[in-house]
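Thread: Newbie trying to understand structure tokens

Hi all, I'm a second-year student working on a class project, and my supervisor (Dr. K.) asked me to get a predicted structure for one chain before our next meeting. I've only ever worked with sequences, so writing a 3D structure as a token string is new to me. If someone could post the tokens and maybe explain what I'm looking at, I'd be very grateful. Here's the chain:
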Amino acid sequence: MKFKKIGIIGGMGPESTALLYKHIIELCQTKFNSFHDGDFPEIIIYNLPIPDITKPITRDQEVKKQLHKALSLFQFAHVDFIAFPCNTLSYFVDYLKSKSQIPIIDIVEETARYIKSLNIDCVVLFGTETTIRKNVYARYLKNMKIRKPKDQREIINLIYRVMKGKGTSRELNTLIGEYTKKNHLLFSGVRIFLFYLKRLNLNMLLIH
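---
Reply by user tm_fold:
Sure, no problem. This is what the structure looks like when written as tokens:
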């Protein structure tokens, strides 16, 4: 099977990038029965060491400069589309699309499209300060209620533990359980949760 050539803006974080690559390989194995080396798509991963965007962004011009460098690399490599496994980076997606001649798959837009297909009323969003404050999901879920934890400290602490290689999915499940119980969400009509930690990347990015 002839696959499209994929460009991945990685490094935000490195583990999420590795997880996306693993998902693509597993998808090829299960959906297309790939197992020979030649059965998999060409994938170019650019691990981009941009300034921290998990906190309020103060160096946006430097971030854009780095992103532009990535776009130039992918343009030279003739990739068919570009993806990135980082929700927070979606804050810069308009800039990316304005500078790229290559189609860009936005993880937030794709996730929002999937959520809409479920015909639900409300989601709960766990994320970085930038993801929360810049309302990166609100632009795609305008008619849906998005609930956000009032106290971000535990979530941010877990994100940074993951960045240091110490955070675990068990800790995330504990946070989910505590938030659910504290806010009586099992009895409030909330039908689905969107738990999005930048580095854990729990939702699947759809690859076309």
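A couple of things are worth pointing out once you decode it. DSSP finds seven helices and seven strands in the chain. The chain has two domains: 6-107, 111-195. Feel free to ask follow-ups in this thread.
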